[in-house]
Amino acid sequence: MGRAVTVATCALNQWALDFEGNLERIFRSIDIAKSKGARYRLGPELEICGYGCSDHYYESDTLLHSFQVLGKLLESPATQDIICDVGMPVLHRNVRYNCRVIFLNKKILLIRPKISLANGGNYRELRWFTPWSKAKHVEEYFLPRIIQEVTGQETVPFGDAVLATKDTCLGAEICEELWAPNSPHIEMGLDGVEIFTNSSGSHHVLRKAHARVDLVNSATAKNGGIYILANQKGCDGDRLYYDGCAMISMNGETVAQGSQFSLDDVEVLVATLDLEDVRSYRAEISSRNLAASKVNPYPRVKVDFALSCADDVAVPICMPIQWRHHSPEEEISLGPACWLWDYLRRSKQAGFLLPLSGGIDSSATACIVYSMCHQVCLAVKNGNADVLADARRIVNDETYIPEDPRELCKHVFTTCYMASENSSQDTCNRAKLLAEQIGSYHINLNIDTAVKAVVGIFSVVTGRTPRFSVFGGSSRESLALQNVQARIRMVLAYLFAQLTLWARGMPGGLLVLGSANVDESLRGYLTKYDCSSADINPIGGISKTDLKNFIQYCIENFQLTALRSIMAAPPTAELEPLVDGQVAQTDETDMGMTYAELSVYGKLRKISKAGPYSMFCKLINMWKEICTPREVASKVKHFFRMYSVNRHKMTTLTPSYHAENYSPDDNRFDLRPFLYNTSWSWQFRCIDKQVNAL
């Protein structure tokens, strides 16, 4: 009867400019899709070159190599008898487009350029590409000779069209178009398109997955149809982690769900669905049918091919499932862990080194590395040959089989407690116990000799010796002495990262991990070029509140009991002298604000786009039960003074896993000046005027 169609989508761990590896992963996904009976295969956005090429898109090499890979796909027997939908950049009439290239049996059916480009937050597509603005219009595209030689075609359709097969009609969306208020699937559905496809390059943000799932399901809830979404996964070369979640939905319900976090480089979802279910669903939506009768039709590319078989009565049909979402704590445990694994294996280093202070932030970072080791062992147990090969190369042992996370930690993770005369025995003990429980190779060292040597040089040159404020020194002297300690820790971290394995008779070097959270970065509560300066930082986009919840999750799920005392201790930098052997310095006292307040300021500043005056106006209502308007004004002014004074630190911020939409990352996400007029005279005067009126 030709009712049951079998379609495949995938999540691929592509890597920017890794044309060899990207081609191999595309081939693997096609092989898996065909082996499961699929007649159509959808891949992620720009999968041939990798999504994160950035300014490499300007280079003719990127276009050339993308077409070379496309040629390999077209000529391969592996791509026969299945419609393949792949992503790559294409230059049409000297304009660069982000495209889908859809082909079947060595013939390109359609090149479909992206209509709505992602250009907010981390995305800069308008920098490299131009959106296709000719709705429902198709032009001739003259193929490069290397493709003509394979396909025998001189020109192919290029533009906003849909595919009409023998049994159904398919229309493509690309990533951002699903999120746009005028998504193409609306008009396509009214014009009789029954299968919508979406190739995405969508990255992970805490608590975001449900929004993507809801958008996909709602796309077909009002209009009926089948929606297929493919997504990139993994770290393809920068701060983002693309979180998979490939899915297939029909008539507003999910029928297939891919994993959000996984070490599998290739994941393929296949579903068999009944087209008659789409047709009968649409039949009774009279408002939809009235609108459909007036729609301006899309150009249709006829395809002499069917996604179904003639005799399909006995073919089993996929049924709706309930989507399973991760908790934020699970997301922190899995997302940054997968990102770290990608970074470690692709950088070809031998492991990580972490300055472990015994506080919440560095302990959370250690737990993420432990979670990474747990995921590696689980993947190997499940038969992932790629992960096993990577693990063996990293530990330099061709017979090694990672089975125990603690044992793997011993190979790839070095922790280092750097004590000074201002460190307490409590933090030393907490760091040592946590290192024992996760299995890291742990080093204890004392930095006092180095600190005294550096300060001694200053004293010899100037004839002056700075003192801490508790010993009669000025705040400037005290801060300088704290900064010296912090910066020496950074120097030592890199020294030990380079030479620790050498000293142990082992090859390779270690990547240094930072552990400043998103709130500290926003406030600037860190020393420039201290231990926050590292190679990468897995928690740099995560709030202190979420990290505390994550620590509790690790206590319960990894049985890391050492974390209980770490949770109970007040956060402290331990850079000022002890008082009677006890820590007198705490983070929140130093900052003049709580971590909870910082999260609020951060969300208002970035997500709500609030300057000082707007933030004050919002907070006098939000905090009316706990603060007077004058107290709110004082808090807002203090935050903006500290934020603007310290903004320059964001220019050197360690590349961090992006997990929060109020991240102050200066590289591409949060574009602001770093030299401010820190008096904010006009803005603060407006606040004062309102305070007096109130």
From TrEMBL:
CN hydrolase domain location: 5-275
NCBIfam families in the cross-refs: nadE
Self-association state and partner proteins as the record states: Homohexamer.
Keyword Ligase in annotation: yes
Top EC class for this record: ligase
HAMAP family per the UniProt record, alphabetical: NadE_glutamine_dep
Record-linked PANTHER family: GLUTAMINE-DEPENDENT NAD(+) SYNTHETASE (PTHR23090:SF9), NH 3 /GLUTAMINE-DEPENDENT NAD + SYNTHETASE (PTHR23090)
Annotated Gene Ontology cellular component terms: cytosol
Coiled coil: none
CDD domains according to UniProt: GAT_Gln-NAD-synth (cd07570), NAD_synthase (cd00553)
GO biological process per UniProt: 'de novo' NAD+ biosynthetic process from L-tryptophan
GO molecular function: ATP binding; glutaminase activity; NAD+ synthase (glutamine-hydrolyzing) activity
Protein name as it appears in the record: Glutamine-dependent NAD(+) synthetase
Keyword terms: ATP-binding, Ligase, NAD, Nucleotide-binding
PROSITE patterns, A to Z: CN_HYDROLASE (PS50263)
Entry EC number(s): 6.3.5.1
Similarity remark: In the C-terminal section; belongs to the NAD synthetase family.
Organism: Oriolus oriolus
InterPro entries: C-N_Hydrolase, C-N_Hydrolase_sf, Gln-dep_NAD_synthase, NAD/GMP_synthase, NAD_synthase, Rossmann-like_a/b/a_fold
Pathway info: Cofactor biosynthesis; NAD(+) biosynthesis; NAD(+) from deamido-NAD(+) (L-Gln route): step 1/1
Gene expressing this chain: Nadsyn1
